[in-house]
Amino acid sequence: MAALHAAAERDRDRGARAAEHPARNYPPYRSSTPRHPHRPLVEIDHRADPEAVELSGPAFGVTDLTDLDADLTRQHPGEPLGERITVTGRVLDRGGRPVRGQLVEIWQANASGRYAHRRDQHPAPLDPNFTGAGRCLTDDEGRYAFTTVKPGAYPWRNHDNAWRPAHIHFSLFGTAFTQRLITQMYFPGDPLFPYDPILGSVTDPAARARLVAAYDHQLSCPERSLGYRWDIVLDGPSATWTEEGH
């Protein structure tokens, strides 16, 4: 990763245009090499394809949500284990204008670093009171908010002694599934940052920094949760980097 970062820095020093997105086949992230697309996207003729209506839908609204969707600590009969946190921020366009009515979804590991998913066989305990998924709609100011627990780090076998930093996955749907963007939010000061090839695939230090939330004591709920602020910018030079380039 150090060599790839150094090469990107040399390119920036020469005035080369910065990459708009991490490489799809980033060698330090081993599974990206065999599974990344090798052919260009196929353009769909919506006049010839009766299924093309899916490209402009669905539309999400308040009737698709419940009061518990945005509070991952209240979705089960008991309290989940771990450090409770509030994560909030705004979804913005390149001009700083709020993106209203945007469906924001999150999923994450529990406080022990394990997902509630059958394919996760990491020998860490599951929490019967934590499923690790939530969603909400942005308000008129483009703001979202979740209450959850801070996820734990976990091993993932990408390389020797590989551990993922604590992170929360974010999904933004736009107005159609084909506009969906997925990214990850990290926590400040994590000692695993230098060893993580997924975060390291973003070779611009400023862009990497935009993936890290800021602790905000004003967002903390007394005797309940610590607060983190993380804004998501959809496009432009200050865009939040996502897992798919468009």
Helix and strand topology:
Elements: H1 2-13, H2 32-35, E1 84-92, E2 103-107, E3 133-137, E4 143-149, E5 154-155, E6 163-164, E7 167-172, E8 181-186, H3 197-200, H4 205-209, E9 214-215, E10 226-229, E11 232-233
Parallel strand pairs: 1-10, 1-11
Antiparallel strand pairs: 1-4, 2-3, 2-7, 5-6, 7-8, 9-10
Provide structural commentary:
The chain is of the alpha+beta class and 246 residues long. It contains 4 helices and 11 strands. Strands 1, 4, 9, 10 and 11 form a 5-stranded mixed sheet that branches. It has a 4-stranded antiparallel sheet with strand order 3-2-7-8, with no helix packed on it. A two-stranded antiparallel ribbon has the order 5-6. A hairpin with a 7-residue loop joins strand 5 and strand 6 (163-164). The protein is globular, with a radius of gyration of 19 Å. 23% of the residues are buried. The model has no long low-confidence stretch (mean pLDDT 88).
Task: Using the CA coordinates, give the radius of gyration.
Answer: 19 Å
Low-confidence stretches: none
Helix content: 10-25%
- Tell me, rounded to a whole number, the average pLDDT: 88
Quick recap of the structure?
This protein is an alpha+beta fold and 246 residues long.
What are its keywords?
11 strands; 246 residues; four-stranded antiparallel sheet; alpha+beta
